[in-house]
Write a structure and sequence with these properties.
This protein has 384 residues and is α/β, with parallel strands linked by helices. The protein has helices at residues 9-30, 37-50, 61-71, 89-96, 115-121, 141-151, 208-217, 239-248, 252-270, 309-318, 348-356, 368-383; strands at 54-58, 79-83, 100-104, 126-130, 154-158, 166-168, 174-176, 183-187, 201-205, 222-224, 227-228, 276-277, 300-304, 357-360. It starts with 8 loop residues before the first helix and ends with a helix. Bound molecules: pyridoxal-5'-phosphate. Residues 60-62, 86-87, 89-90, 132, 158, 160-161, 187, 189, 199, 201 line the site of pyridoxal-5'-phosphate.
Length: 384
């Protein structure tokens, strides 16, 4: 059996080597390392793929979130609601901009922000909601967009883990994540579903005015050379990274289909094991079938019941199976973000999930032998 990796970037590279090498070579030859033609081509290709009017590439997914908030003109003291159970980047940029982060609980089945908790947290100072499409599945956007409309709030999608996923609205219309709110961010960190070979990110919006504002912000607030109209940042996707992304984008749907296929195999293996809860797909979806494209499984995350999760993690590591605990500490308990406004009783789900979750290897190169070995090792431990 091939050595199991959490993410197999080498195996994936072997498959697309020619295109990647050719794209990088082209950048080396034309030496337009910053803002070269590859960046503009990638931007257009991603706009077409997502069906979104504007893609603005930038340096990483954290910048993308920050720039989206700057572009919306959020001001110190404005409250921004986001999920307690997510990667820290989301709350970090809110705090950096001196906005007030308001963390709320998530849903036990999808791990995504709970619309009821959002509604409860709204005050006259609330300006925006940041749903994170965690682990590759969209948050409940029907409910979130309705709340936003009712209270006149912006919706900023953190799509770092969800690129390529679809969301089916209650009325049956289907759209890609990142094309659902006012503005969205994504990350091209190497291990993301669409990853480059360094850092990268992008902002998406259908609002022409906002896109114009953001294009200036990413470039030192310049709309005309050496005229600085607003305070900006320097945040660019470089041409070599764009070349890598151009080689990968045509494969994104195939990559996500492979991830779903692996998830289905894991699910089948874990069926009927009472100590294991498999990931739940969105209610509008019929489950993990060949044609379902609502979940892109950035992570395949189990909940274990009545089991010492950390002992399971140690057991997997002993058997050379890499795994991850995303996330072990709720954001409201992180030193940097502790706030006396928070009450433990408001986070029952996050406080439970941090003890139960474990993410298994998930990437485009997993084979049946590896999946069977991983599943058997988990099952042997939890049923012993
Ligand atoms: C990866 C990630 C980010 C940050 O992206 P970087 O490119 O690493 O800055 C933000 N939010 C979520 C949910 C992520 O998974």
């Amino acid at each position: 059996m091939k050595k199991i990796q959490m993410v197999d970037l080498k195996g994936q590279y072997e498959d697309i080597k020619e295109n990647v090498n050719h794209g990088i070579q082209e950048v080396l030859e034309n030496t337009a390392f910053i803002n070269g033609p590859q960046v503009h081509k990638f931007q257009k290709e991603l706009e077409t793929y997502l069906g979104v009017q504007h893609v603005i590439p930038c340096a990483n997914g954290t910048d993308a979130l920050q720039i989206a908030m700057m572009g919306l003109g959020l001001k110190p003291g404005d409250e921004v609601i986001t999920a307690d159970f997510t990667f820290a980047a989301t709350v970090e940029v809110i705090a950096l901009l001196q906005l007030t982060p308001v963390l709320v609980d998530v849903e036990i089945d999808t791990f995504n922000i709970n619309p009821k908790a959002i509604e409860k947290a709204i005050t006259p100072k609330t300006k925006a909601i940041v749903p994170v499409h965690l682990f590759g599945q969209a948050a409940n956007m029907d409910a979130i967009l309705e709340i936003a409309k009712k209270h006149n709030l912006y919706v900023i999608e953190d799509n770092a883990q969800g690129i390529g996923a679809n969301y089916t609205f209650a009325n049956g219309t289907k759209k890609k994540t990142g094309n659902l709110g006012h503005v969205a961010s994504t990350s091209f960190f190497p291990s993301k579903n669409l990853g480059c070979y360094g850092d990268g990110g992008a902002i998406f919006t259908n609002d022409d005015g906002l896109a114009h504002t953001i294009r200036g912000i990413v470039n030192h607030g310049m709309y005309q050379r050496y005229h600085h109209d607003v305070v900006g940042v320097n945040s660019r996707l470089d041409s070599i990274q764009a070349a890598v992304l151009r080689a990968k984008l045509p494969n994104l749907d195939t990559y996500n289909t492979k991830r779903r296929a692996s998830a289905r195999k894991y699910n089948d293996a874990f069926k009927g094991i009472p100590q294991i809860e498999i990931p739940v797909t969105h209610t509008s979806c019929t489950g993990i079938c060949e044609s379902c494209d609502c979940h892109v499984f950035h992570q395949y995350t189990l909940k274990v019941k009545g089991i010492d999760r950390d002992a399971l993690v140690a057991h997997l590591q002993k058997n050379e199976i890499p795994c991850g605990v995303y996330y072990p500490i709720p954001l409201h308990s992180q030193k940097a973000y502790i706030d006396e406004r928070y009450n433990e009783a408001d986070f029952p789900v996050t406080n439970q999930l941090i003890k139960e979750v474990v993410s298994l290897p998930m990437h485009t190169e997993l084979d049946d032998e590896q999946i069977a070995f991983i599943a058997k090792t988990v099952i042997d431990f939890v049923t012993k």
